[in-house]
Design brief:
With 91 residues, the chain is α+β, with helices and mostly antiparallel strands. It contains two helices and four strands. It has a domain at 24-76. The radius of gyration is 23 Å and the shape is extended. The N and C termini lie far apart (69 Å).
Length: 91
């Protein structure tokens, strides 16, 4: 594994850096991680621990994440009904 410091951006004369950790493909395969998978980090003392953030399923063909977000929004915009309260007929 290797850590590299690279320039992220230069803004108003100030340089901002980020760190890139290079992990071998063999190690990634053994962990079962996939490209783009969210990760969580924890720091205890001088030790950095990296864990999977959320277990993600492989992408389904034919669906985009924007399609799923839209369907969730449409459902949440509907009227909120109490399932226990009696329903009044529409006037």
């Amino acid at each position: 594994m290797r850590a590299r410091k690279v320039v992220n951006r230069v803004y108003e004369g100030r340089t901002y850096y980020r760190w890139i950790l290079s992990v071998s493909p063999k190690d990634i395969q053994q962990l079962g991680w996939v490209d783009g998978q969210p990760l969580k980090t924890y720091i205890r003392g001088s030790t950095l621990t990296i864990e999977p953030g959320v277990s993600i399923a492989p992408p389904r063909r034919g669906l985009r994440s924007s399609d799923l977000e839209g369907s969730v929004r449409r459902r949440s915009l509907g009227p909120q009904r109490d399932p226990i309260a009696p329903q009044r007929p529409n006037e």
